[in-house]
Amino acid sequence: MKKYIPILKRTKLFAGVTDEEIGVMLSCLDARLHTYKKGEYVLRQGEHLNCITVLVDGELHIQRDDYWGNRAIINRIAVGEMFGEAYIAPESGALLNDVVAVEDSAVIFFDVRRIITVCSSACRFHSMVVQNLFFAISEKNRTLVQKLGHISKRTTREKLISYLSEEAKRQNQSSFTIPFNRQQLADFLSVDRSAMSNELCKMRNEGLIEFEKNQFRLL
Amino acid sequence: MKKYIPILKRTKLFAGVTDEEIGVMLSCLDARLHTYKKGEYVLRQGEHLNCITVLVDGELHIQRDDYWGNRAIINRIAVGEMFGEAYIAPESGALLNDVVAVEDSAVIFFDVRRIITVCSSACRFHSMVVQNLFFAISEKNRTLVQKLGHISKRTTREKLISYLSEEAKRQNQSSFTIPFNRQQLADFLSVDRSAMSNELCKMRNEGLIEFEKNQFRLL
DNA sequence: ACAAGTCGGTTGTATTTACAACGGAAAAGA
DNA sequence: TCTTTTCCGTTGTAAATACAACCGACTTGT
């Protein structure tokens, strides 16, 4: 697990904490490492979780399939990001979504209560992590609201424009790569893949965008 | 401001804190009270916020109007709930939404940094509030995901069923009142009001639901 | 009591979408 | 290399939606 310390160091959760301090916290927070093959479920809807988790390798989707097989990709977790932070509270209840490995992945689980219960020794790095956790959850909150902004648009085209322009802004360039293939993007924006594909091509024909595979450019 | 202590006491943020302790914190956290008339803006998109706020009277909508005048109601804030928690981090940037008073309302603003920076005296109630804040933000996170679940449904009917059945479950009875009028519900679910109205009546004709004004019953 | 405004249901039409099915190109696997 | 699978664009059709317009019931304010 120690080999992931350099990665943990770059996460929002452990920002400003030194390697040695992280090493100490790994045992202090009862960290456990699990690995998953592409396609495996990390967590399933209905399970209970009392850990904060950090993805240290691979990629995860937080998603939900409904009764009719429609998939909604709620969120995407990249290396260094965390998930499970919505279930910190003891009375949080069961998970509402599945968490699936889209690539071979490695996840570290941390005991929640040991994080948010400030230890008696009140170590410097612990209170740092507490504050980091605040910021991280808070930021995820904003991310969710932004996503709401995308899918609350009425038409497929508007959803695409909303998503693509935010992505361009986030990556700070008009040409950028998105982390989804077509089906995944459709699931993320909650639209039909073929309809979306169609709309994308229309937009290209109208000279609004260019794209090839996952590479997009706004014009 | 002291007259709102009984209300604050029942909020998630101050759960488990006594009246006197809240009284102390009001000054300790630099609390400020503002009141708003129905229709007034509490905060506007683009502004900066470095406070956690609690609604102590009235009702707020967190919403966003796009260029074409389409309104999306992101969330509803009831008495005792808080907002602004997504902007705790110093680098959060500007507000992405408007916050509007739907009724005459009163809001208390608390300085964020004084909350999350544990004071040197490490008072009992302060660490309590820190933990409460964790749980509250975390819960809001879940609320947002639930809302995503509603509007990620493809048809108006599915959105309605998703929303109404969650509301029934939340209020723990098949007959319940919703906090929106038709237009607001449409804005909340991101659909057209008349189309939604139409769909509601179809569902009634099919014997799925009953309703009158804001009172609904699932059958 | 009257006028103005709000609210919710209804209808028709043009637009948009989902869905199913297909095919070619590229990638993955044997 | 050959086969299989994945990915993505295309098309046609049926279904669902947005939009505008209208009406009656009810509320609010004067």
Characterise this structure:
Two copies of one chain form a homodimer. Chain A is built from seven helices and eleven strands. A four-stranded antiparallel beta sheet of chain A has the order 1-8-3-6. In chain A, strands 2-7-4-5 form a four-stranded antiparallel beta sheet. In chain A, strands 9-11-10 form a three-stranded antiparallel beta sheet. Chain A is globular, with a radius of gyration of 19 Å. In chain A, helix 4 (124-151) packs antiparallel against helix 5 (156-171). Chain A has 219 residues and is an alpha+beta fold. The mean pLDDT of chain A is 91. Chain A starts with a helix and ends with a strand. Chain A has helices spanning 5-9, 19-28, 112-116, 124-151, 156-171, 182-189, 193-205, and strands at 32-36, 41-43, 51-57, 60-65, 71-77, 82-83, 98-101, 105-111, 175-177, 209-212, 215-218. The A-B interface holds A 64, 66, 70, 72, 74, 85-89, 92, 96-97, 116-118, 122, 127, 130-131, 133-135, 137-142, 144-149, 151-154, 190, 192 and B 64, 66, 70, 72, 74, 85-89, 92, 96-97, 116-118, 122, 127, 130-131, 133-135, 137-142, 144-149, 151-154, 190, 192. The first copy, chain A, binds a DNA duplex (30 and 30 nucleotides) through residues 154-157, 181-183, 191-195, 197-201, 213.
